[in-house]
Amino acid sequence: MASLPELADVQILVGVFGDEKREDPTEGTGSDPTNADVAIWQEFGTESPDGGEHVPERSFLRSTIDEQGRRYAAELKRGVGRHIDGKQKIDVTLRRIGLAAVADVQKKIVDGDPEWPAMADSTYDAKSAKTRSGSEGEVQRSGSTVGSRVRSS
């Protein structure tokens, strides 16, 4: 059984992992972004060279953690109790929380968020027929891994 002080250094990482290149519907831009790059752009937004907004922020990671954080904390509390009672290894709880967070993030990517700004007509028009259903699911459909990892610092 791991001691509670050892658990203080454990992290659950949830994000878009992988360095797969994506099909860029805006060919000729000279860029070769990975799916993780696109995820960062969507999560935080980007600015155009003139300082204006280029890609608006469409947070799917931070907003999901903000919305579901209390649920994850409650599960962690239950899991620590089961661990102290010798009924369950703590890594089982951590992995469950990570998997729940992944499912919640994937759901947000697929379903979108009513507060997200709509995709610009020019972006929509530039997309191939294969990806026309919207950028909200692009990372998900691309085969990138939205996943979790448990790590000790």
Q: Can you give keywords for this protein?
A:
153 residues; mainly alpha; two-stranded antiparallel ribbon; 6 helices; 10% strand
Structural commentary:
The chain is 45% helix and 10% strand. With 153 residues, the protein is mainly alpha-helical. Strands 1-2 form a two-stranded antiparallel ribbon. The chain is elongated, with a radius of gyration of 19 Å.
User: Helicity, in percent?
Assistant: 40-55%
- Structural class comes to mainly alpha
Compute the CA-based radius of gyration.
19 Å
Flag low-confidence runs: 132-137, 139-144
Number of helical regions? 6
What spatial form do the alpha-carbon principal axes imply? elongated
Which series of helices and strands comes N to C? HEHHHHHE
Biggest sheet character: 2 strands, antiparallel
Mean pLDDT: 78
Tell me how many strands there are: 2
Distance from N terminus to C terminus (CA atoms, Å) equals 18 Å
Our estimate of the beta-strand percent is 5-15%
Q: Name the strands of the widest sheet in spatial order.
A: 1-2
Architecture blueprint of SSEs:
Elements: H1 4-7, E1 10-17, H2 35-44, H3 62-84, H4 90-111, H5 121-126, H6 138-141, E2 145-152
Antiparallel strand pairs: 1-2
Question: Can you give me a brief rundown of this structure?
Answer:
The protein has 153 residues and is mainly α. Helix content is 45%, strand content 10%. Helix 3 (62-84) runs antiparallel to helix 4 (90-111).
